Amino acid sequence: MKHLFFVDESLSPELAIKLAQLGYSARHAREVQLKGADDEKVVEWAIKNKAVIIAGDLDFGELWYWRYRGKLSVIILRTKSYKIESQYKVIRFLHDNNMLKTGKIINSLVISTSSRYRIRTA
Fold it and tell me: Could you tell me which residues are beta bridge partners of residue 110?
């Protein structure tokens, strides 16, 4: 199953490139003119485009939990630093565990480190 991934501006634009190198369709906030947009606008875009939001902070997790459960797909990367290497390590972990291809992530909230993840469904 192929998903479109939206990489939030809190993460490196290079992460969208790395996702594409792994075979995924990915867009960074800058690419779709959402740099500086409020979270609600990002959520609207993601729902309209059936995209999975990848973010580095918990704001989208809170939006998923309180307002968009069952309508929005979010992956929160929990890293020790905001360097691309740390971000990619988490993405690579999810890729290696087939989490990025599975339908399980649709309308779910995934919180992941580079060694474990947890998933909440609607």
Answer: 75, 119
Phi-psi sector, 70: left (phi>0), alpha (psi -120 to 50), beta? left
Whether residue 72 contacts residue 100, with contact meaning beta carbons closer than 8 Å, is answered with no
pLDDT digits (tens, 9 = 90+) for 99-114: 999 899 999 999 999 9
Token pair 């459960």: residue: 69
If one counts the domains in the chain, the total is 1
Amino acid making up residue 6: F
- Can you give the residue range of the structural domain that contains 12? 4-120
Q: Is the dihedral of CA 64, 65, 70, 75 positive or negative?
A: positive
pTM metric for this prediction: 0.95
